[in-house]
Fold this protein.
Amino acid sequence: MTTVLLYTSPARGHLYPMMDVAVALRARGHRVVVQTLADQAAAVQAAGVEHRPVDPRIEALPLEDWQGSNPLDALRRTLARWVERAPFEVLDLRAALPQVQPQALLVDVHCFGAAALAETTGLPWASHLPYVLPVPSRQAPAFGPGFPPPTGALDRARDQLVWAVQGMAARGPLAPLHALRRELGAAPLASFTDLFTSPPVLFHRTAEPFEYPRTDWPGNHRAIGPGLWAPPAAPPDWLALLPRPRTLVSVSTEHQDDAPIVQAALSAFADQPGGTLVTTAAQDPGAFSPPHDRIRLARFLSHAAVMDGVDLVVTHGGMGTTQRALAAGVPLVVVPWGRDQLETARRVERCGAGVVLPRGRLSPARLREAADRARGMKAGAERVAAAFAAAGGAGRVVEWVEGRA
């Protein structure tokens, strides 16, 4: 039996994609401790896995990128917050090591402090990444703006410029991290992309063709398909009463001020045939007024429990909801709001599995038109579903643990 400590950022969108790994390791007889959000203790323990809460000072530092005045400002804010959490992660993981006594570590790639400490322990360790890979490639565009893949020298020059500007923007926020890594004895980072290429192994929770195919993947990269675990839940009783076609509307679980997506959907689908399920997540459901009982609102509703019963997903472009829909062969309308969501949206469009509606063009009429087009793209979503199923999933992480530890 091997003891594995799995350390995640304080967000469901980072915990849930790795819970299938925790469950698979436990099924093989290994001891697994998941150090994550305090309020997820019951869900983790119900899956037969040990739970350990992260330091509450980490949870007290939520992302505030949505307050950024532009994409570069949002990037700086995101990096600064991850770096601000890093010293607490070091203390947190350092305290866990003698108590848990792990033989292997799996560390969220966004946990900069925990990853730096893991590098110095001498233990086998790997990182896990729940969204698209922000590393330069000859065959993939620069990360962030949602560009299509490059097709010539002009596109590649554009991408090099964007990477350079982002690198300069990252220098200030990352400066304290460089100092922390020196203090710990971890290897220096030449750029912020080293955060993704320096771990011995990076388990990437996606797969081609959703992620752009390329021949120059980093040597540590392992695309294993999405993690689709969710706490067990039954579909609500009222779901069967909603007529088809059914549309699921979902916004971010981490606040990013994306309530306009919900408002537009309530108007867009008010007079349409079929039913609509809306999960408001970080938004207060009391702020919205559904026009009739064919539109149902809930703050949280298990997407895993309802996905097989919906025909279309409208989303902000979070990787969890997007990949769950694609894994079920359900097409999407993506209204990217920020963070990595422009990149997620472009990939949905490129693999023919849905329609992108830019944030600045969001209106009820345009959302209705996009939904009509997306419903005809089920074949593209089903192609991605087949590729996800073939990617290996949690079993590839189990193989790594049993081979290294």
About this structure: The two ends are 10 Å apart (CA to CA).
